[in-house]
Fold this sequence. Notes:
Blueprint: H1 2-21, H2 27-55, H3 64-69, H4 71-84, E1 87-95, E2 98-106, E3 117-123, E4 132-140, E5 143-148, E6 154-163, E7 169-178
Antiparallel strand pairs: 1-2, 2-5, 3-4, 3-6, 4-5, 6-7
Amino acid sequence: xxxxxxxxxxxxxxxxxxxxxxxxxxxxxxxxxxxxxxxxxxxxxxxxxxxxxxxxxxxxxxxxxxxxxxxxxxxxxxxxxxxxxxxxxxxxxxxxxxxxxxxxxxxxxxxxxxxxxxxxxxxxxxxxxxxxxxxxxxxxxxxxxxxxxxxxxxxxxxxxxxxxxxxxxxxxxxxxxxxxxxxx
Length: 184
């Protein structure tokens, strides 16, 4: 029985020692946890703000409000284009060490449309730093082409404007995917 009492006393001493080793939750500890939590949130928000401001490319549509007000005119222009019955193709073609943009216009009878003033705005859908506007020259009957510098593979949006001698504007928007064979 004496050995049982000794072991009970040892257990009590062990419990007392364990109790003294455990840290008790104090007001300073709660304050430190509270401040630490909010500092983590502020640092994370600061990182998000930095990258949001660094990667923002600005407005993607200039004068969006005015364009919205004139939307009925856009619809009328599209209807007039459909009445012409033109067909067109837009593509990037390899040309020596670079690329060229080629646009072909055919009328409703599949005859080439000649004598147009053609320009194209080539833009990356996600970044505006690669945007460029070029003028295309008629290289064959109804075929318009111009060398173009396109540094990145992937999707490109090409907005073509073809103006007839009478002033009528034919607008065309194509999304092209460029994949070069030897990516360097």
